[in-house]
Task: inverse folding
């Protein structure tokens, strides 16, 4: 079967660091994506991991452990505009993305 | 801006009607995927088209069908609309690389309401 597990909601303070965890079970694996989605808008690409380890891109970093079926997205120096849903999406061999319900992050001043 | 456009932005239909949603891919992208996103949920894969052929399908009934044209634009058709079809419909374009498909870039979506 296919299952994506992320926390439903998280809150954090401006300037802080937050880590959003994702565990997954998929039939076939061809990389994992993180997308950001503001309310009423389309998902926008944040990061992609296909090998184990950490990928850093500015304030955002993403980590993958394929043997554990685990990934996290790390957001540093949080800003108010980072309030959004964050979607973990493993990709199957058929190239389809498998999304969970996402994590709604609220950043407070 | 991802270079992926969709039309219309919003649509209201009644049960039993048919609807066609359109997507224009990013330049150079020959693969398009369609997703349905219900309120409060993540996107669910409907199907993918590559070079005008269906290239994978999710758990959606046959009344969901699609087309991809030579210019790589695409259509999603839904027949016999049901109330549960109310959702945001997203298309995403990508292009193949030696290791598989590249990142999928999403369009702004079409919000469909079925009454």
Result:
């Amino acid at each position: 079967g296919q299952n994506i597990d992320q926390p439903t909601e998280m809150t954090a303070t401006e300037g802080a660091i937050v880590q959003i965890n994702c565990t997954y079970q998929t039939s076939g694996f061809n990389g994992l994506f993180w997308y950001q989605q503001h309310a009423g808008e389309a998902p926008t690409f944040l990061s992609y991991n296909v090998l184990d380890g950490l990928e850093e891109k500015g304030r955002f970093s993403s980590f993958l452990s394929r043997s554990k079926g685990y990934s996290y997205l790390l957001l540093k120096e949080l800003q108010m505009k980072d309030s959004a849903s964050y979607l973990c999406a493993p990709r199957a061999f058929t190239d389809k993305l498998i999304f969970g319900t996402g994590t709604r992050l609220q950043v407070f001043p | 801006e991802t270079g992926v456009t969709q039309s219309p932005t919003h649509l209201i239909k009644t049960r039993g009607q048919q609807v066609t949603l359109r997507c224009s891919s990013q330049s150079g992208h020959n693969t398009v995927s369609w997703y349905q996103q219900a309120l409060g949920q993540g996107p669910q894969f409907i199907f993918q088209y590559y070079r005008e052929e269906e290239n994978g399908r999710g758990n959606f009934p046959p009344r969901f069908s699609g087309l991809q044209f030579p210019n790589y634009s695409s259509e999603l058709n839904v027949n016999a609309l049901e109330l549960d079809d109310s959702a945001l419909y997203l298309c995403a374009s990508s292009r193949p690389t030696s290791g598989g498909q590249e990142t999928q870039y999403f369009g702004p979506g079409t919000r469909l309401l079925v009454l």
Q: What stands out?
A: Chain B has a mean pLDDT of 91. The two ends of chain B are 32 Å apart (CA to CA). The interface with chain A takes residues 2, 31, 33, 35, 40-45, 48, 55-56, 58, 90, 92, 94, 99-101, 103-109 of chain B (CB under 8 Å).
